[in-house]
Design a protein that fits this description.
Layout: H1 2-13, E1 16-17, H2 18-25, H3 29-41, E2 45-51, E3 59-64, E4 70-77, E5 80-87, E6 92-99, H4 110-126, E7 133-140, E8 143-144, E9 151-152, H5 165-173, E10 177-181, H6 182-193, E11 202-207, E12 211-217, E13 220-221, H7 265-268, H8 270-280, H9 288-292, H10 295-316, E14 320-324, H11 326-342, E15 352-355, H12 362-379
Parallel strand pairs: 4-7, 7-10, 11-14, 14-15
Antiparallel strand pairs: 1-3, 2-3, 4-5, 5-6, 8-9, 11-12, 12-13
Helix pairs in contact: 2-3, 4-5, 6-12, 10-11
Length: about 375
């Protein structure tokens, strides 16, 4: 327990002296010295210079040894795969983008080939071989059904629905692979690095080409019995038809989708915003950003967003709603304020509304955070 406490401190605070580690953990100097010697012998920490500029002998600094483990994080979309490789401290060492057409559509094991190319490209940028990886986390639209092992709600990702895909990917890469819903990973990023760092109960609403949500209650992601919690793209709302057809349309918690779908997604997804802009006669209807610059479009999108979010708030009662994806990003603080204002007077709890505050791609950031947490649990075990 003491070893892990010290390692977590070094991860979160950076290089520390033996004295400071003792102060933060409550350990005596001899115990802290023994602990650091043990961790150094295990290859988990290393010395990194001395503290200077103060009276007395200079104190040695200790830090996590970055080569103790490496992980890969991937974000999948219909156009391709983005991969990043990082060391155990979270420092990204290499990145790679592979287009979906880099491997022929009917090639055997096409999905595994695409993933391997993306990972190998990122590893090459980091100067590492596959054998140095301790784990891989892949963020993808849809959700892995724990009963069947198949990816659900992602018909626009051909090749990703095989029952044995997870094992095939692990075999191709030679390391454990975790598949996770992309919007769930965006919520992980907000929880650790963004707008939800101080909140244990929040909902992340993703409005992009696809529409979905991630529900975090008591600090933990709510997944549901089949991995499909957060399918708010399917919400039947006034002004939009119901989604039918066994999975077409409102893509669960998905950053991307193959069509406008039905329900909530057809009201606030990127295609719906562009259609609304044409209806309002906005000047620039080629981009969501241009469409959201129109006051009328922005106000209508805010009303639609608030209507769907109100249904979620009535069920899970979150302290915070985080708006993420292309539509909230284009609408900015003006859209956020309008959505928050729509809750005035409703007989519901009134959650705070914040925009995503993650520096970098949230899905990739969340995948990296998840991969690092798993790797640290494995390599930081010194018992």
């Amino acid at each position: 327990m003491n070893d892990r406490a010290a390692l977590d401190l070094l991860v979160s605070q950076g290089p520390l002296t033996r004295t400071r580690i003792g102060e933060l953990t409550g350990l005596s100097k001899p115990t802290a010295s023994q602990l650091l010697a043990r961790l150094e012998a295990a290859g988990l920490v290393r010395t990194t210079g001395n503290v200077t500029g103060r009276p007395g002998p200079s104190a040695q600094l200790y830090e996590i040894d970055p080569v103790a483990a490496h992980v890969a994080a991937l974000a999948v979309d219909p156009l391709g795969i983005t991969a990043a490789v990082a060391d155990i401290t979270g420092q990204v060492l290499g990145e790679e983008r592979v287009d979906a057409d880099a491997v022929a559509g009917k090639a055997p094991h096409r999905t595994a080939q695409l993933v391997a190319r993306a990972v190998d490209g990122a590893l090459a940028g980091a100067g590492l071989a596959r054998g140095r990886l301790h784990g891989v986390v892949i963020g993808t639209p849809g959700a892995l059904d724990p009963r069947t092992g198949r990816l659900r709600y992602a018909p626009h990702l051909p090749g990703w629905h095989a029952r044995g895909l997870k094992d095939e990917l692990a075999g191709a890469l030679g390391t454990p692979v975790t598949l996770e819903n992309d919007v769930n990973l965006a919520a992980v990023a907000e929880q650790h690095d963004g707008a939800a760092q101080d909140v244990d109960d929040f909902v992340l609403v993703w409005a992009d080409k696809g529409v979905g949500a991630a529900l975090v209650l008591g600090g933990r992601l709510l997944r549901g019995a089949t991995g499909g919690a957060g399918e708010i793209g399917y919400l039947p709302l006034p002004g939009a038809p119901l989604t039918r057809g066994g999975g077409r349309g409102g893509d669960h918690g998905s950053a991307q989708a193959d069509d406008a779908g039905g329900g909530f997604q057809q009201l606030v997804g990127s295609p719906a915003v562009l259609a609304l802009a044409r209806k309002y006669g906005a000047r620039d209807v080629r981009t969501v950003e241009g469409a959201m610059a129109h006051d009328g479009v922005r106000a209508e999108v805010a009303r639609r967003l608030a209507t769907g979010i109100a249904a979620v708030v009535a069920v899970v009662d979150p302290r915070l709603v985080v708006l993420s994806g292309e539509v909230p990003r284009a609408g900015g603080q003006a859209l956020r304020a309008l959505v928050e204002e729509e809750f005035t007077g409703l007989p519901l709890s009134r959650p705070a509304v914040r925009l995503s505050d993650v520096d970098g791609p949230p899905v990739l950031t969340g995948a990296l955070r998840t991969a690092l947490a798993t790797a640290r649990d494995a390599v930081f075990h010194t018992g």
